[in-house]
């Protein structure tokens, strides 16, 4: 009987779990402080030679031009460009952009900036020669506009390198969305 008991104990001990076996079933501690950076979506393509005018600002027949919602546009400088040159200097210049999904949209050269910490918006705008438009401090954002479309892409790159800035995106108008 003692021999049978010893054989059972030896046999049972060979099936017991080691510390390594038990550790396999314990979840490992993960580093939750690490957050993967979200990839920056590509910026829309700006058609620098384009001209976009709201149909209500046109005196002549806007059906002569390509239409995008309530806007007339041309991709290359033409008759619309001549009309836009006669607008007052403070009138927003609009450009055609193609978004990542291939849709044509409209931009007035404004950008939406999300900040890590809210700066003094007027000081920030003067640093980058921007026009301060809207304050969205509750969500750490603000909207600014530049009057120089030719420098817009460089400006966005420069803004993204600023330590105070979290994200920068070109503001666009989707003319297919109408107010209800």
Named CATH architecture = 2-Layer Sandwich
The total of helices stands at 5
Counting DSSP E segments of at least 2 residues, the number of strands comes to 9
Write the CATH homologous superfamily. Answer: Peptidase S8 propeptide/proteinase inhibitor I9
Strand order of the largest sheet: 2-3-1-4-5
Helix-strand sequence: HHEEEHEEEHEEHE
Structural class: alpha+beta
What share of residues is helical? 10-25%
Q: β content, as a range?
A: 25-35%
Ranges where pLDDT stays below 50 over 5 or more residues in a row are: none
Features:
four-stranded antiparallel beta sheet, alpha+beta, 180 residues, single chain, Alpha-Beta Plaits, 9 strands, 5 helices
Question: How is the topology of this model organized?
Answer:
Layout: H1 2-14, H2 19-23, E1 45-54, E2 66-68, E3 71-74, H3 79-85, E4 94-98, E5 104-107, E6 110-115, H4 121-127, E7 131-136, E8 141-145, H5 152-160, E9 165-170
Explained architecture:
By secondary structure, this protein is α+β, with helices and mostly antiparallel strands. The chain has a single domain, classed as Peptidase S8 propeptide/proteinase inhibitor I9 (Alpha-Beta Plaits, 2-Layer Sandwich), CATH 3.30.70.80. The chain has 5 helices and 9 strands. It has a 5-stranded antiparallel β-sheet. The chain starts with a helix and ends in a 10-residue tail after the last strand.
Summarize the structure.
By secondary structure, the chain is α+β, with helices and mostly antiparallel strands. It has 5 helices and 9 strands, in the order ααβββαβββαββαβ.
């Amino acid at each position: 009987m003692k021999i049978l008991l010893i054989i059972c104990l030896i046999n049972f001990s060979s099936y017991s779990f080691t510390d390594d076996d038990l550790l396999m079933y314990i979840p490992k501690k993960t580093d939750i402080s690490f957050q993967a950076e979200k990839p920056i979506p590509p910026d829309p393509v700006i058609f620098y030679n384009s001209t976009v005018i709201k149909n209500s600002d046109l005196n002549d027949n806007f059906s002569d031009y390509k239409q995008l919602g309530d806007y007339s546009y041309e991709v290359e400088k033409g008759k619309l460009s001549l009309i836009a040159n006669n607008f007052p200097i403070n009138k927003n210049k609009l450009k055609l952009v193609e978004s990542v999904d291939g849709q044509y949209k409209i931009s007035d050269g404004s950008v939406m900036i999300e900040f890590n910490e809210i700066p003094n918006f007027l000081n920030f705008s003067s640093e980058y020669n921007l026009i301060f438009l809207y304050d969205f401090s509750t969500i750490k954002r603000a909207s600014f506009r530049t009057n120089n479309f030719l420098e817009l892409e460089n400006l966005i790159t420069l803004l993204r390198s600023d330590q105070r800035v979290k994200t920068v995106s070109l503001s666009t108008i989707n003319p297919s969305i109408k107010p209800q």
